[in-house]
């Protein structure tokens, strides 16, 4: 009879007796009683070897009083999870793209950064993408010419390619069709395609899309592009000499931010841009007279585009010169005071709601406005009917679960910036800076997307030779009521 | 200086050397001019005489010339020998010093003529006696070294000067060519033994790797408590040492002491330190990445699990929580159904699961009992990579720990010859780590056959060679060497081109680690017959391993010459040459600084494969010692256009900052993580480096040097060098499926602590001063040994270049080298004030 001690985990079991005539399995059974570890999972270490169930004690040479060590647990054996884990590396390329959190860049085909940056900015509008994907179903209507149709299809394809790809996409097809539709982009210089004005590209492309995306079946209201980008302006044209006054409305796709020496901020520039002088024949005076035109916004778009009028034709040098003046723009734009009286009234209630919600977020007590909330509710309803297109088109899928509809607030958030770097519109470099759904800002410098900090986005306001904002796009903030 | 075959590079270097020499040579002249003015009359006379002689030497008359020459040389020696035999000191210090100089010269002359030196030695006796009495130990040692009779020193040292003498001897040894250095250390050892300064004697015995001396320390000392301290010192050095009854008589005592040597108390001590510093709380990889400081960038990662990123997280988690026994990925208690530990394991892909399972070994490092308990369940998995990981984990958890039951061998032994290669590698590598330096014959007999098994896959053979190299590190074992040599000869042309083949010559080299020329010569001869694809690689590896830590200047030059060559073909031997440069030069500060400078230059003119190795060499030179200049160089290289240079630089940033929590490196790496967020490979390297910097939450070091930078732990160096060799082909090994070679670093991981224990080996807290170590070699009196110190209470962390001293007289430390575990004895003379 031998006596040994067995160390198991941190415990030591002293004085365990071994009968050398019985196989070690018996010993293991003894240990099972002590530790609860089933014999088949016991590993008993004796001088650099494991104790086998059928070993001969004498051959092992265990001495009286020897210390043995046992390893083993009654723990559950690890099993692979039933649902195998899918690793990003194993995903097909297109799915990897979505995991990056942003889409691919565009290859520069030779001075095509104006086009690349325009495409990247417009691509950031999901509604435009969905409108384009619906276009496939409707097909070409009779009143859209062949090249417009082709350009629309090419845009759709390009957007799709960008979403699917991890690596930079080469927009060869799109570029060819763009040049076909707008031959002015085919200008050559020294055998190379010239740099073009991104604003022209933007405007022309958007115009083409608006033409072809007009649903042929229904009324004008279903002009998808107009619904997204169109701003209705109501202008008062006033002649100081004769005192004549007339009013006119127009729809534009972008607001202009005029830059003069007193403009330091986008807001000032916009105000400036909504006021103008024009000369026209006055019926009262019977000659041309100077009229003042003052415009106010009558309806708000879902996406507000602002163009900084940075380029002007300089006769002396015979080229588009650039105004380098620094004009700040905010990440959050409130255009309430550029709106017409009626629109302001409609906006009041949603704005109050928005303020309350924000107040709540900050932990403030919402002011009890039980009395006038009724009034405003009716107002709001009215407004939702009147500005119909914006609130109905805009309701996202998730919105239906919320009670009430979404309303414009006149407050906009910056979503994309198209910048220019250089001294003239036909030279230099264009880059797009686009906010992703994740909230991250990505700079699309042709084929190189890179992450940017939000505070750096507002630094693109000019005043030097750094990239400066040329076209910026804001997205409306809604409040559900 | 051995002229290199390439005239361009070497010529360039030589020119610069000349330039640097010229500059200082001007200064002494100026000083001389000034001195002339303040000469005393006596000296002036002497000087005029001298000038006369110089004039006469140029005289056309040969007889006059001869006379002049003779009277110029050894004037005072001549008079002394022919003249009086009175007290040598009566003429003053300057006279004795002068005499000593002349004796040294005369000695070489007579050696050349094989003339008798008896009269000289008489004088030497007197001079040495004089110097030793007058606080001029350094001069006495210098003279004795010149006349090659250091034994004389033993007669003249006494209690007052033996420390300074030995201090000078040990530091001088670093600059002496072999075998003089060993001789000098021998004398130092004898002096220490003579004055019963056993810890220092033991230190030197370990340095000499002389087990006979180690034994003598034990047999000479009678105090059991002091012997315990010796055991702590041996355990830190990481060698396998068996106590016998001659050293410690009592069986119970011996067992207890052997436990200390076997490092069984290491985990406990480390956790004591961790609790005291309050860093027990487990950290997640995210705590290390600190992505929130990167303002939005890469903060919310991709939604799907990236196998590579998860693997990186596995390593970071393992390194950061190393030895703490708890983490938030692997050891968390599994919930009822799936078990979250299992979850993380399965978030790693294929071979990634090996590293994940093995990471448990790292987390439970040194705690064998708990480690085996945690790893047990993975042994029963039916997934080969997991089993492989469990095996490797067993090896890691046993790293540096010896146990009578040999659990690692018992568990791993069975798996060596399994079918699946990954399982085999797990077991083989585990054995290599657990038994590094043990020279265990049982393992050799089971691993050697693999090397010469024609059917074994290359990777299994490579790891077997490596593990054998580790187990027999620095042993010069002939049989192992033979097996590896045969394995190398058996490799086909194609196999020799494989990345893993480099482990064969490396395994061979490790056998001779630090053993210098004589031992490695035979093997080096054999390596000349190898296939040319591997021949030079093998040469370089053998050379650099054999001279690792010796600071041999000639070898540094040889290796530098290799780096300077501009090769056309895809030769790979320059990588190990660059690493070798660092291995040889890393031992002492001056050589280290020179090597850093040389590497900067190699970076300028070297070929791409040389440039790739330079960051790694810098990483080795400054391991766990973040020198700002090196940090800046590596930071620059981490943005290199060559991605492999960048990768090595990033990993090296981790190495130099390993276990320091260095905020500057952490910041650099954080920025790199956003800079490289799209490049999975580089990002992986950044993550690994981040894990290294926060290794053991800042309580660990990777430095193979300890005991005031005197001793070099061979197993630690072997671990680091292996990783560096693997990093020479990062893409195929670490970024491929052999990432677990990163775990070789465990061999070098040690707590960078000073923990004081009382006579019952229970931790006690005492005040200590910790400051920058000051070099006091050759300084008279009792100079301060640290500067800019702060007072803490033990246990304390010691950074590179720091030294501690007790700030209380209440206790007496049993070792003058206050590192690791220090036993304190109550001071009987202490009086409470």
UniProtKB/TrEMBL annotation, chain A:
It catalyses: Thiol-dependent hydrolysis of ester, thioester, amide, peptide and isopeptide bonds formed by the C-terminal Gly of ubiquitin (a 76-residue protein attached to proteins as an intracellular targeting signal). Transmembrane segments: none annotated. Residues 349-361, 369-388 have a biased composition (Basic and acidic residues). Residues 2-71 form the Ubiquitin-like domain. SUPFAM superfamilies: Cysteine proteinases, Ubiquitin-like. One of its GO terms (biological process) is negative regulation of ERAD pathway. It holds the Pfam family UCH. The keyword Protease applies. GO terms for molecular function: cysteine-type deubiquitinase activity; proteasome binding. Residues 104-477 form the USP domain. Keywords: Hydrolase, Protease, Thiol protease, Ubl conjugation pathway. Its EC number is 3.4.19.12. Residues 349-405 are annotated as: Disordered. SMART domains: UBQ. It is an enzyme of class 3 (hydrolase). InterPro entries: Papain-like_cys_pep_sf, Peptidase_C19_UCH, Ubiquitin-like_dom, Ubiquitin-like_domsf, Ubiquitin_CS, UBP14-like, USP, USP_CS. Belongs to the peptidase C19 family. Recognizes and hydrolyzes the peptide bond at the C-terminal Gly of ubiquitin. Involved in the processing of poly-ubiquitin precursors as well as that of ubiquitinated proteins. Interacts with calmodulin (CaM). This is Ubiquitin carboxyl-terminal hydrolase.
TrEMBL record, chain B:
Keywords: Proteasome, Repeat. Residues 75-293 form the RPN1 N-terminal domain. Transmembrane segments: none annotated. The keyword Disulfide bond does not apply. The keyword Repeat applies. Residues 777-830 form the 26S proteasome non-ATPase regulatory subunit RPN1 C-terminal domain. Pfam families: PC_rep, RPN1_C, RPN1_RPN2_N. Residues 1-43 are annotated as: Disordered. Residues 13-37 have a biased composition (Basic and acidic residues). This is 26S proteasome non-ATPase regulatory subunit 2 homolog. It comes from Brassica napus. The lineage of its organism: Eukaryota, Viridiplantae, Streptophyta, Embryophyta, Tracheophyta.
